[in-house]
Amino acid sequence: MRYSNTLIVRPVRNGQGIIALKPFAPGKAICRIRGKIVTGDTVWRYFDSDPRRGDNCFRYDADHYLDPEGEIGAYANHSCHPNSGAIMAGNRLMLKAIRSIAVGDEITHDYSTLLGADDIWKMKCACGEPNCRRVVRNVSRLPAGVLAGYTALGIIPEFILATRCP
Ligand SMILES: C[S@@+](CC[C@H](N)C(=O)[O-])C[C@H]1O[C@@H](n2cnc3c(N)ncnc32)[C@H](O)[C@@H]1O
Ligand SMILES: [Zn+2]
C-alpha cells in the first residue's frame, strides 16, 4: 500500500509496517500522523467494539487521542531501538528520524514516548532488538537512561512528560 512518494506499507516482522522509499537523515521529518482527534472515552469504546482500533490510537494531548484509522499512522510499529520519534509541530503529530534511515528500512518509534503516566495500555514487545524491554509500558516505566536519551532528542512531547510524578 503506497501512502506517499517516500513511504510504503508492507509486511514486516510484526504485521504490516512502514518502509522508507528514500533515505532520511537524523532530524528530518518523515511524515505527519493524521487522524481523527477523539476523547479517552471514545478510545475506551473502541476497546469494546474493535480493540485493534483502540490499540492503534496515539496520545495527542492531555485529554485527547489521535485515531489513525485509514491513515499511515495505523501501520507505525514500535521498536525498543527506534529510528524515529514522535514530535508535536504545533497541532501536527509528526515522526522525525533520530538515526540515519536507509531505503528499505522499517520506520519505527517507541510507543512509550506517547504513553503518559496515566495511560494503562501495555504491549508484549517482539521488536527483536538486543535491548528489547519485552513489555512496553508508559513513560514512567522507561529505564532512566532511555528516558534521558529520548528527552535529549526531544521526542517525548511536553504533555507526556507533564504526566510524570515530580
Ligand atoms: C499501529 S499498529 C501497527 C501496524 C500493525 N503491525 C498491523 O499490521 O496492523 C500497532 C499494533 O502493531 C503491533 N505491534 C507493533 N509493534 C510491535 C512490536 N514491537 N511487537 C509486537 N507487536 C507490535 C501490535 O499489535 C500493536 O497493537
Ligand atoms: Zn522491544
Rg, Cα atoms, Å: 15 Å
Number of helices: 4
Helix content: 10-25%
Helix/strand class: alpha+beta
Largest sheet: 4 strands, mixed
Order of helices and strands: EEEEHHEEEEEEEEHH
Side by side, the strands of the main sheet go 1-2-10-7
The overall average pLDDT, rounded, is 97
Rounded to the nearest angstrom, the distance between the terminal CA atoms is 44 Å
Which molecules other than protein and nucleic acid are bound? S-adenosylmethionine, zinc ion
User: Beta-strand level of the residues, as a percent range?
Assistant: 25-35%
Shape assignment: globular
Strand segment count: 12
- Parts with pLDDT < 50 across at least 5 consecutive residues: none
Commentary on this structure:
By secondary structure, this protein is of the alpha+beta class. The protein has helices at 40-49, 51-56, 144-153, 158-161, and strands at residues 7-12, 15-20, 29-33, 36-39, 58-59, 64-67, 77-78, 84-89, 92-97, 106-109, 123-124, 135-136. The strands form four sheets. The protein has a four-stranded mixed beta sheet with strand order 1-2-10-7, with no helix packed on it. Strands 3-9-8 form a three-stranded antiparallel beta sheet, with no helix packed on it. Strands 4-6-5 form a three-stranded antiparallel beta sheet. The N and C termini lie far apart (44 Å).
In short:
With 166 residues, the protein is an alpha+beta fold. It has helices at residues 40-49, 51-56, 144-153, 158-161, and strands at residues 7-12, 15-20, 29-33, 36-39, 58-59, 64-67, 77-78, 84-89, 92-97, 106-109, 123-124, 135-136.
Notable traits:
alpha+beta, four-stranded mixed beta sheet, three-stranded antiparallel beta sheet, 12 strands, binds S-adenosylmethionine, binds zinc ion
